Amino acid sequence: MKSKTKLMILLAAVLVLALTAAAALIIGNRAGKSNDTAIRGEGAKQFTLTVTDYDGKTAEYQIRTDAATVGEALTGQGIVEGEEGPYGLYIKKVNGIRADYDLDGHYWAFYVNGEYAASGIDTTAVEPGTVYGLKVE
């Protein structure tokens, strides 16, 4: 009888651990975190790009380029689409996701090392090792 009780306790503990692991995976996926970092492009300079969509899901890329500006690097690789405006490149799509303030009240914000950028994406020089971000706001 004692061995049966020990077996039941062991099985219950294994079940609790399995459920905890499954819940952690589900919560991690809902938080929008991505563990995959895609490498895009070729070149001597490398920087990180984090893209955050409407749902808060993020994708991270290691960008390799010889371009002078971040905008040139990202448009050249087809990551960013937009049009020239009075203040430079107005980003309307990132990875095919549209955020156009005139149409839907949202826009792609540009960040440098976690801070809202003081310059436009097409005038910001590529600095190797820097983390650039694009986020729907």
Short description:
The protein is an alpha+beta fold and 137 residues long. The protein is built from three helices and nine strands; from the N terminus they run αβββαβββαβββ.
Describe this structure in words.
Strand 7 and strand 8 form a beta hairpin. This protein folds into two domains: 1-31; 37-136, Beta Complex (Ferric Hydroxamate Uptake Protein, Chain A, domain 1), CATH 2.170.130.30. It has helices spanning 2-30, 70-76, 101-104, and strands at residues 37-40, 45-52, 58-65, 80-85, 88-94, 97-98, 108-112, 115-116, 131-136. The longest helix has 29 residues, at 2-30. With 137 residues, it is of the alpha+beta class. It contains three helices and nine strands; from the N terminus they run H-E-E-E-H-E-E-E-H-E-E-E. The strands form two sheets. The chain has a six-stranded mixed β-sheet with strand order 1-3-2-9-7-8. It has a three-stranded antiparallel β-sheet with strand order 4-5-6, with helices on one face. It is elongated, with a radius of gyration of 22 Å.
